Amino acid sequence: MRARGTRRRVFVGGGDGALHAVDTATGRELWKGALARRSSATPMTYRAKNGKQYVVIATGARTDAELVAFALRPGSGQALK
Are 46 and 55 spatial neighbours (Cβ–Cβ below 8 Å)? Predict the structure, then answer.
């Protein structure tokens, strides 16, 4: 999933305990955000009324399921938890 304004970056859940930002041209990992549980979900993105963009990913299953959100640094494509 490509976040708006991130140019060559996509965010992916790798089936492990992290959300990954990957350079689409080189395949190089640019950033990794720790998750409390494994995820193989497709990340989602949204922009809040305050203008901040967020990347959200579903983790866990059943009673352990949750959504984890990371705020993107403006213009960088890098996330902050």
Answer: no
User: In sequence order, what are the residues at sequence separation of 6 or more whose Cβ sits closer than 8 angstroms to the Cβ of residue 59?
Assistant: 35, 36, 37, 38, 39, 41, 65, 66, 67, 68
Helix (H, G, I), strand (E, B) or coil at 30: strand
Report the distance separating Cα 2 and Cα 65, nearest Å: 24
CB 78 within 8 A of CB 70: no
Using DSSP's 3-state secondary structure scheme, residue 44 falls into strand
Residues 6+ positions from 34 with CB-CB distance below 8 Å: 17, 18, 81
For 31, the token pair is: 């950033």
Question: And the tokens for 25?
Answer: 């041209």
Model pTM score: 0.75
User: pLDDT of 6-33, one tens digit each?
Assistant: 467 889 987 889 999 999 989 999 889 9
